[in-house]
Amino acid sequence: MDSNFTAEVETLILTAGHDVAKLHGPIIFDVSREGDAFTQMNGQLKMMGAGDMVMRDAQGLCCSIIYGQDNRSPITAATTHVLYVAYVPAGVPRETVEAQLSKMEQNVRLFSPRAVLERCELIST
After folding, report:
1. Distance linking the first and last C-alpha atoms of the chain
2. Are 98 and 122 in contact (CB under 8 A)?
3. Domain that holds residue 80
4. In total, how many domains does the chain have?
5. What is the pLDDT along the chain (125 residues), one digit of tens a residue?
6. pTM
7. Please, what's the b/e burial string for 97-106 (b: 16 or more CB within 10 A of its CB; e: otherwise)?
């Protein structure tokens, strides 16, 4: 769980880690709309304004770059399948993002050397 935070400190790329088993349906990267809401990790309902980078699944918002992650999909000790998502605004060099992803993988392998990387993809809009 701390592998992404440790890498964030080095690269300054914000990254969220989700337990894939707790996500539902298609995952969509989107922009928040006025009236969007989600429950943050601290249990507080957060009403969103328009214009934030977000990730949604079939049950709603999973993560916001401004307000953080939801309380239903965080990584726990029981998690066996993880989705890491790095939210990167326009203008950040691709090499910086690749460094973040590489550093996260290295950090995961420190405590789970047999971890399997299923897919690593940069999606641009």
Report:
1. 27
2. yes
3. 2-111
4. 1
5. 466 666 666 666 778 889 999 999 999 999 999 999 999 999 999 999 999 989 999 999 999 988 999 999 999 989 999 998 888 878 888 898 888 888 888 888 988 899 999 998 888 77
6. 0.85
7. beebbebbee
Q: Which CATH number characterizes residue 67's domain?
A: 3.50.40.10
Long-range Cβ contacts of 78-83 (<8 Å, 24+ apart) = 79/19, 79/21, 80/21, 81/19, 81/20, 81/21, 82/17, 82/18, 82/19, 82/20, 83/17, 83/18, 83/20, 83/23, 83/27
Closest CA to 117 of 125, 105, 104, 100: 105
